[in-house]
């Protein structure tokens, strides 16, 4: 029985769709690996196994059950902080009853704004040593890694400063460096960052917060939107199966071993040849031609590599990726693609999105624009309730810090684009 099989067996009484549980398992693997395992040399376009997953389904389908369980597992993991050469210190601490442990995963709070996430990551720096291929001396690598299992609180992230959020999320997915300078935070630099993101949402929230423009910003291209049609079965009281506790214990031990891994993965010759052939000759084949998946397909080769690493480390601690890892990763992605458009089905240029775009274009051309002027430009595009749509668009742009307003008398407001500081 593989670790993935054990995870499914342990959660057999959970009614969530089977593929939700599968991807939750691989999210655990990715979170434990963080930025400590990678493909390619660190100084030449490295790719890390971190993932962004958003489970989309209606109420009662079972989005949050396995997601919250995964968070509890990651939060409870503990590994030894003792390094090579500290065996005597560890033995002494054992005798004194003061043996130390540490968590291999830094979890973000459940309900967390983008500002708090950025600040937490900027202060969460750790390091490890590894010996590069062909090298004879270990090298110290510093990184800022974090796991965000935000479950139903995904809306918290998107409720304000969406432009900052997307910039940061894109950088964290690429495991690069994030820089910005503001009056409040002065100069802020996060080097070698890494984020694993898991969120749950209902279709209505996706329609309201993920518009076509956001699909083109890079965030949606980096995110796997996982659709769930219905729960596998109905339940009354959800009770654990005590006879299967050992299965979760075995998975936990495997995750602890993964937490100790560091370094660059290598590929078998067959795996390398297969991946190269797929990228050059087959990556143009789109199983789902829906336009909303265009940005996903542009980055599918990166998704494939990330998922292949997680598939491999889901069952092994060896640093060599096999051909079977890539084939299984492709199978998993292909299965998602068939229904991925359903997760984004309501994403379109709704009246509020069109009005928002007109407002931004108007403010890019003029300063101190009045509500009356905005209404004249937008009224014909507001649908059945233009005044309500215009007000909603202004409130949304203010909430994400895209525009500012000011008033002398508290009644007649003037609107301007928010001045951006250099990142």
Taking all residues together, what is the mean pLDDT?
A: 86
Strand line-up across the major sheet? 3-4-7-2-8
Oligomer kind: single chain
Structural class: alpha/beta
% residues in beta strands: 15-25%
Uncertain runs: none
Give the end-to-end Cα distance, rounded to a whole number of Å: 49 Å
Total number of strands: 14
Helical content (DSSP H or I, runs of 4+)? 40-55%
Query: How large, in whole angstroms, is the Cα Rg?
Result: 24 Å
Give a verbal description of the structure.
By secondary structure, the chain is α/β, with parallel strands linked by helices. The chain has 18 helices and 14 strands. A hairpin with a 3-residue loop joins strand 5 and strand 6. Helix 1 crosses helix 11, helix 14 packs across helix 15 and helix 16 crosses helix 18. The model has no long low-confidence stretch (mean pLDDT 86).
